[in-house]
Amino acid sequence: MSMRLMQMLGFAGLIPFLGAALGVMFLDDLLLAVSQRTFLLYSTAILCFLGGTLWGESLPEPTVGDGAAILISNGIVLFAVLAMLTAQPLLAALLLMLGHLALLWYERQLPERASWYTRMRSWLTFVVVIAHLMFSVGLTFRASL
Q1: No. of H helices and E strands in the chain?
Q2: Domain segments of the chain: what residues?
């Protein structure tokens, strides 16, 4: 896959985060509920996808150091699902945000990462964290009304 395509897909993937976070901040009734569910499900899906990439990187020839990546991959998916099972949108969003940050931290520890990919993942995670904060502020503001 080309670097340009990966960058385009990565940045396009921010649109649902930002759109749903804005929806939680400014929409009402059914559209608010849809925005809230969309945000949390999308965040969970992306976190699981990113976790899965760790598994995929160890293929086709797993090496000795790949055990940790595979465990982290599975652990991040379980963490994301458990965040959703709290059934508390604010708590789920904050836990998912923590998951995105933790995964970025882990990825930055891995050797042999292309510098462009590390920069892209850092920027994408920064925007994802901002979107989670917007979502959380939107929920908190609505609860105080």
Answers
A1: 6, 0
A2: 19-24+34-143
Number of Cα atoms under 13 Å in the Cβ half of residue 86: 17
Report d(CA 14, CA 51) in Å as an integer: 17
C-alpha distances in Å from residue 122, one per residue of 23, 29, 88, 116, 118: 25, 34, 27, 10, 6
What the block records as the tokens of 120 is 């892209």
pLDDT digits (tens, 9 = 90+) for 41-85: 999 999 999 999 888 777 666 666 667 888 899 999 999 999 999
Q: Answer yes or no: are the C-beta atoms of 46 and 38 closer than 8 Å.
A: no
Q: What string of DSSP letters covers 111-130? A: SS--HHHHHHHHHHHHHHHH
Q: What pLDDT, on the 0 to 100 scale, is given for residue 64?
A: 60
Give the burial class of 94: count Cβ atoms within 10 A of its Cβ; 0-12 exposed, 13-18 middle, 19 or more buried.
middle
pTM exceeds cut of 0.90: yes
